[in-house]
Amino acid sequence: MKKLVETISNIWKIEELRNRIMITLGLLLVYRFGTRVALPGVDSSLLGQAFSDNFDGGIGGLLNAFTGGALSNVSVFALGIMPYISASIVVQLMGIAIPYLQKLQKEGESGRKKINQITRWLTIGICLVQAPSYLLSLGTLGVDESAFIMGRGIDWLIPSVLILVTGCVFAMWLGEKITDKGIGNGISILIMVGIIATLPQFFVQEVVARLGAGNGGWMLVLIEVVVWLIIILLSVLLVMAVRQIPVQYARRTASGGYERNIMGSRQYIPLKLNASGVMPIIFAQAIMFVPGLIGSASFLKDSNVGQWLQTNFGNNMFGFWYNLVFALLIIVFTYFYTAITVPTNKMADDLKRSGGFIPGIRPGTETSEYLDKIMSQITLPGSIFLAAIAIFPAFAVNLMGVQPNWGLFYGGTSLLIMVGVAIDTMQQVNAYLLNRHYDGLMKTGKNRKVVA
């Protein structure tokens, strides 16, 4: 505890870091306030229990968690930041096939700004599709007509669509401001805060359910918490695990040339076990919507195949077939996303230009092939590990009997996002502390402040 108080005190002493943290907290407070503000013309107190039930567990609960409950509140931030995430993924994938985007990726900061602008416009386009779809589906989701004070005519629909699109763009702006003026990746932090906001409520629901007659009581609650902490630990290991490839750098001689000998500096290339992060889960989750939509199509709806697809892939994300297909898709997408995001050719070229080489491996093509081989070897266990964590909520619900909403926090996208964003933010704070000669968040020891 003394070390924790000392670390917090050190953080507060660094003016720039203190200001960034305060700006981050202030912008997050604005975002959380917006998730509680209902759309004009909607009485949130009359939304109804049937509507809430559609966001308990399953895919609906997952989407609602990403928006911090804004989806079920019919708030101005109901779309959350997910349209921006979708647009970013689309632009990133298009960069593989479209020469213009490939050219922008190589132009440095100016190219990055143009890509960001394209992503913003695509975000608005996605919002213009998602907003009316969401509003028109409120009735089928169980919202009572009495909740719409002004009715659901065109005079309510058009302003509501504009407000939802504006809310998404404003949330995107908040995320970018957190990245520029605050701490961490702003977009990721908004998602993480939304997920964490629903955690206490779902945990309380689980405790209440366990304390009921014959449901295990406090002992099972304790066991569930211990298992949850173990899953968090395994998620941290997955995010942090790297394979270190030793690199030898030639020593520069007085004449300006390079002398390759054992006296050169020795470093490492860190290849992450899970280089793709949570993107394979997001890709796979998007694909998992397709079978349910096919099963509900008019030409298959009443057939045996359609009924089977609706039963196993509709909103049943804890079923056997859903999770089997989900896990296989995650493994496939992990290989795919790693292949397009880890440029082994560029890594080999940069290493060669800087006078570095992997001991026993020739610079250039042979180095690229070696790095590609190592990535393929470590991606297999990484993808299996990622798939196992992604489908563990199904085991928690079916074998441990936890509530579906609380089960979502036993793995999958929610937990990995929380772990990944928390680690990234801690590393940034850690860098500020170490640069000011303080002990970092991830290291113990005495205060190392240096007096100039």
Gist of the model:
This protein has 452 residues and is mainly α. The chain has helices at residues 2-13, 15-34, 49-53, 58-66, 70-73, 82-97, 99-105, 109-136, 154-181, 186-210, 217-240, 279-287, 289-295, 304-313, 320-341, 344-353, 365-398, 404-407, 412-435, and strands at residues 242-249, 251-252, 258-259, 266-272, 356-357.
Structure report:
The structure is a single chain. This protein is mainly α and 452 residues long. 66% of the residues lie in helices and 5% in strands. The chain has 19 helices and five strands. The chain has helices spanning 2-13, 15-34, 49-53, 58-66, 70-73, 82-97, 99-105, 109-136, 154-181, 186-210, 217-240, 279-287, 289-295, 304-313, 320-341, 344-353, 365-398, 404-407, 412-435, and strands at residues 242-249, 251-252, 258-259, 266-272, 356-357. The strands form two sheets. The protein has a three-stranded antiparallel sheet with strand order 4-1-5. A hairpin with a 5-residue loop joins strand 2 (251-252) and strand 3. The longest helix has 34 residues, at 365-398. The protein is globular and about 75 Å long. The two termini are 29 Å apart. The relative contact order is 0.11.
Notable traits:
452 residues; mainly alpha; 3-stranded antiparallel β-sheet; two-stranded antiparallel ribbon; 5 strands; 66% helix; 5% strand; globular
Spatial separation of the terminal alpha carbons: 29 Å
Secondary-structure element order, N to C: HHHHHHHHHHHEEEEHHHHHEHHH
What structural class should be given to the helix and strand makeup? mainly alpha
Q: What is the makeup of the main sheet?
A: 3 strands, antiparallel
Q: Shape from CA axes?
A: globular
Q: On the 0-100 scale, what is the average pLDDT?
A: 82
Q: In order across it, which strands form the biggest sheet?
A: 4-1-5
Strand content: under 5%
Structural Rg: 25 Å
